[in-house]
Amino acid sequence: MNSVAIVGTGLIGSSFGLALKAAGFAGHIYGVSSQAAAEAALAAGAIDSIASLENAVRQADLIYLAQPISRILHTLRQLDPLVQPHALITDAGSTKQTIVSTAQANIHRCQFLGGHPMAGKESRGAAEAEADLFRNRPYILTPGNLETEAAQTFRGWLEKIGARIVVLGADEHDHLVAYSSHLPQLASTAMAATIAEVSPDSAQVAGPGLTDATRLALSSYDLWRDIVSTNTEPIVEALTAYIQKLDHLRENLRTRQLHDEFTAAATFARQLRRL
Amino acid sequence: MNSVAIVGTGLIGSSFGLALKAAGFAGHIYGVSSQAAAEAALAAGAIDSIASLENAVRQADLIYLAQPISRILHTLRQLDPLVQPHALITDAGSTKQTIVSTAQANIHRCQFLGGHPMAGKESRGAAEAEADLFRNRPYILTPGNLETEAAQTFRGWLEKIGARIVVLGADEHDHLVAYSSHLPQLASTAMAATIAEVSPDSAQVAGPGLTDATRLALSSYDLWRDIVSTNTEPIVEALTAYIQKLDHLRENLRTRQLHDEFTAAATFARQLRRL
């Protein structure tokens, strides 16, 4: 792998560039993004040069799509005539079914492998990028031929940057992240919106718990519009299960059931921290 | 103020002892607790000696009740015959109406002032105590004569340990913390319990968001049983408002309403961080 095109040089794309370099990648990294984002990535040392999509992709052995989901879908419809046949296209989109099916319908001249690094932070942009963002974090790959030369090379670099590869079907991925990622986001947004509307003075007695509970509520709607619109059904299912559980707690505030729910919840929370 | 009795030397009681000493308190601090908890507080340097409730309270100018709520209620029923008339009794319980009314009914020979430091951490016990636990955190006091000598002295020490005093009626306090503290706890417990029950494999794709969202779920039921049973109505009201908001989000995942809720939530979350 001599040449990489990172398309979308925000937090994830730029962190991937920094991580590759920190892991010893000595080839060339092209950045394809808006002028401002590409310049920030260049300043951060995450890319070696700024290029147009066409120029970057024509030379790249790896094409890493780290745009918002709707932009990834748009890019996938343009890439096929531009790629080298031995290249690998992969993406870092937060939902997988729509992206994988769009790739299947549009990419014929080289391999596509869906991906989703379970990494991130509150702040966005290349200036916040970190070479260690993926370290010890799950990195989902959707099924495909993982033994092609291009796929083996990519997997090798993921291991070098410290990611823990997990292979999951796009459908299964989208169902699992509806609970692990999309539900926590909407729960935090709902929490902050509820208190803002019904009891804003509660802010004056806020402890660290409310700060934690409203951290995800700081997230940008721009990112979430795409996630919600490409994963609506699993999210409805997760919200429904959560609302049912909250109803159950409300009905059982003074019964033994509350004890049982606290125990089940604490057990899961501890397991999560041991993984 | 020459002598303080800390009744209940867990995280909060021991942190209060450490904070007093760090702020220059040179008098004697008695610790009243179970043998194990009192020894841990002594080892942590949070108290100067271990005493029985009777011996500590007979000598104390300030009696600081930092037990679980049900134990505070029990202690309040025993204290009156033991106290010095110039002493001040205060507490650190997480709900205030039940405690204040129990104090009003039982404490006649000295002043009582309800309190609630909005401070805490995941781990419990004297070994986790910190002199800075109250620094820059709201410290609620319930209304009463704040100008008595005992109350002025206590307020002075709260300021020296860095707490931000907020005076709130017990009823108003309990209503506000139902949203700022009890709702986040139950939302986190419900989140972890839902995922454990419906989609436990989501743990394998968990990012930092789920870790944040399930932190409070690690809390001990023992503490929360007392909180929930002494603040049931405001908690039911807060849960109901939260469930309605989640319902609203679920119905509007693909409408402009979702944008508006994200905006309102992010605005509140940012305000909270500026306070």
Give the rounded overall mean pLDDT of chain A.
96
SS-based structural class of chain A?
alpha/beta
* Helix content class of chain A: 40-55%
Order of helices and strands of chain A: EHEHEHEHEHEEEHEHHHHH
Residue ranges of chain A: pLDDT <50 for 5 or more in a row? none
Polypeptide structure, described:
The structure is a homodimer of 275-residue chains. The first copy, chain A, is of the alpha/beta class and 275 residues long. Helices cover 53% and strands 12% of the residues of chain A. Chain A contains eleven helices and nine strands. In chain A, the strands form two sheets. Chain A has a six-stranded parallel β-sheet, sandwiched between helices. The radius of gyration of chain A is 21 Å and the shape is elongated. The mean pLDDT of chain A is 96. At the A-B interface, helix 7, helix 8, helix 9, helix 10 and helix 11 of A face helix 7, helix 8, helix 9, helix 10 and helix 11 of B.
